[in-house]
Specification:
The protein is α+β, with helices and mostly antiparallel strands and 118 residues long. The protein has three helices and four strands; from the N terminus they run βαββααβ. The longest helix is centred in the C-terminal third of the chain and has 12 residues, at 81-92. It is flat.
Length: 118
């Protein structure tokens, strides 16, 4: 009697695209700059300063592939820089090569719950 092959193989991918109109400045909340990207952190900083004065800060990182992150100042006012950069390094590390510049939108939602005595 011959055994029936009951193994099953499936390979799937889920793709979600967020397509938006090209914007000037060509950035949203973050630009993650690879170590060998065609544009470096100083040039990105100058571009941001010309297009949106005093709105962005360049944070240099010690990372294998990422040289720096250009981040909107309002985000740094809401989140601790160290925590934000740790999250960016962990998540971008899976996506970026050292020659890339990634653009990212950041949504921050703060939840506050307080208890008071009556």
């Amino acid at each position: 009697m011959q055994e029936k092959d009951t193994s099953y193989y499936s390979r799937k991918a889920t793709l979600s695209l967020k397509i938006t109109e090209f914007e000037v400045p060509p950035m949203q909340d973050l630009l993650i700059i690879g170590k060998k990207a065609p544009i470096g952190p100083e040039a990105v900083k100058r571009m941001a300063q010309m297009l949106s004065p005093e709105q962005f800060t360049v944070v240099k990182l010690n990372h294998a592939k990422i040289e720096a992150v250009l981040v909107r100042n309002s985000i740094l006012q809401m989140l601790d820089e160290r925590i934000l950069m740790q999250i960016i390094m962990e998540e971008a590390d899976r996506l970026i090569s050292d020659t890339m510049v990634l653009r990212s939108e950041v949504k921050v939602s703060v939840t506050v719950q307080r208890e008071v005595e009556l």
